[in-house]
């Protein structure tokens, strides 16, 4: 009876936590098409202002890869009203912090300020959207910054090019075949006219969402937003028509070399649906089941029991049009990559062919409940989630109801989805070896 009571209390506590964390928000559109989302939380004197643009690495023409990531840097250069190189100084001298990041699908800029500097954050982002200074000096400066980043993070980092190998072998037609950071020869070939045209096409209010979250007063914030963003002209509608990939029906084998490593690596990769699809949520659960923590199936088998792997992990890499699913492992000693690949396939085959145990299923549900409770623990995190859910998923309210999707996934569905996507004939085997570096 005591055990039952403790379990019941834990369930009640979890339910109350989930209920208590519901995020309230208000959303609307300006006349120029800018979507606005406001979240009021007056518990701390902090505010996040953020803009997410629906432009990422995939948004390019052949021969002009990497422009979205390049713009992540370029749009900090300065504006008509912000002197070149002064952006970060303005933010830090007013008690704030800021950053930006780019994926294959979107670019995200944000500032976090004491709430009495809300207007400053809005002004900065409106300046970035309306008045960026795009000239040859800024382009040349940021080209060198991006080149150095590529050398540091990809060319000279152990296993740094693995994701490039992954994209190049899972995709033949779609722009996901090329790295988000792009190829340096494409960046060098880009002209001032190319860069200006890219800005005019994608960095417009009707291709973006503005989120203001934190210690705000709603009506006052709406007025400031209208004042700063309302006059920005609407851009032409962005039309995307990327080619569809043919299904992978025979296992492919790819080999790449990295001069920065001494231990080889192997990856088994699969092309999966974009992150909005229900099956992508199921595959999230499968990757957690296979490799989240030391009690996971792959870790127990290949690291603990058979002592074949130094590391092993299954990753669902979410993207808008197609996702990438990767099982990655590093061998111990003389263990062959073929032995690791065989061990990985054995565990994946069990998910395809058998129902996971009821106990493992409950552990999965508990992990996802816990992740959901912790996912929006800061105003900064909430702002990012609201922007992502609206711009990429088309449903801002997912911030409160996404957990219901995971709750509804059954053991039978896990088996069905694994059988649908994670078969050997639909995979790419990647051998990533020490040696003279494969160039990308």
TrEMBL record:
GO terms for biological process: proteolysis. Residues 36-157 form the Peptidase M16 N-terminal domain. Belongs to the peptidase M16 family. Keywords: Hydrolase, Metalloprotease, Protease, Signal, Zinc. InterPro entries: Metalloenz_LuxS/M16, Pept_M16_N, Peptidase_M16, Peptidase_M16_C. This is Peptidase M16. Residues 191-367 form the Peptidase M16 C-terminal domain. It comes from Croceivirga radicis. Residues 1-20 form the signal peptide. The lineage of its organism: Bacteria, Pseudomonadati, Bacteroidota, Flavobacteriia, Flavobacteriales.
């Amino acid at each position: 009876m005591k055990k039952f009571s403790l379990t019941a209390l834990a369930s009640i506590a979890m339910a109350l936590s989930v209920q208590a964390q519901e995020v309230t928000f208000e959303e609307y559109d300006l006349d120029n098409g800018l979507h606005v989302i406001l979240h009021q939380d007056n518990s701390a004197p902090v505010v996040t202002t953020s803009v997410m643009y629906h432009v990422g690495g995939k948004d390019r023409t052949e021969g002009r890869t990497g422009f979205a990531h390049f713009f992540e840097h370029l749009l900090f250069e300065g504006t008509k009203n912000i002197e070149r190189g002064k952006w970060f100084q303005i933010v830090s001298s007013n008690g704030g912090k800021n950053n930006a990041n780019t994926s294959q699908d979107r670019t995200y800029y944000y500032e976090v300020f004491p709430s009495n500097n809300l207007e400053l954050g809005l002004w900065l982002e409106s300046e970035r959207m309306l008045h960026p200074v795009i000239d040859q000096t800024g382009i040349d400066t940021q080209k060198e910054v991006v080149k150095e980043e590529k050398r540091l993070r990809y060319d000279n980092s152990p296993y740094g090019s693995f994701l490039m190998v992954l994209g190049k072998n899972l995709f033949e037609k779609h722009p996901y075949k090329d790295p988000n950071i792009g190829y340096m020869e494409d960046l060098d070939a880009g002209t001032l006219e190319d860069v200006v045209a890219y800005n005019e096409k994608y960095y417009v209010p009707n291709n973006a969402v503005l989120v203001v979250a934190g210690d705000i007063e709603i009506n006052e914030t709406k007025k400031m937003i209208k004042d700063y963003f309302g006059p920005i002209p609407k851009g032409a509608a962005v039309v995307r028509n990327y080619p569809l990939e043919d299904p992978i029906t025979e296992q492919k084998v790819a080999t790449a070399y990295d001069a920065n490593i001494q231990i080889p690596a192997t990856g088994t990769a699969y092309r999966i649906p974009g992150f909005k699809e229900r099956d992508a949520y199921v595959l999230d659960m499968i990757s957690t089941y296979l490799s989240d923590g030391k009690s996971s199936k792959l870790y127990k088998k290949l690291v603990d029991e058979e002592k074949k792997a130094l590391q092993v992990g299954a990753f669902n890499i979410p993207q808008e049009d197609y996702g990438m699913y990767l099982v990655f492992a590093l061998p111990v000693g003389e263990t062959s990559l073929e032995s690791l690949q065989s061990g990985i396939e054995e565990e994946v085959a069990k998910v395809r062919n058998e129902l996971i145990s009821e106990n493992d299923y409950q552990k999965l549900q508990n992990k996802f409940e816990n992740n959901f409770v912790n996912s929006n623990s800061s105003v900064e995190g909430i702002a990012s989630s609201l922007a992502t859910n609206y711009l990429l998923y088309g449903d801002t309210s997912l911030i409160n109801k996404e957990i219901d999707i995971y709750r509804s996934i059954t053991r039978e569905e896990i088996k069905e989805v694994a059988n649908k996507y994670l078969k050997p004939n639909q995979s790419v085997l990647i051998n990533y070896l020490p040696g003279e570096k494969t160039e990308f």
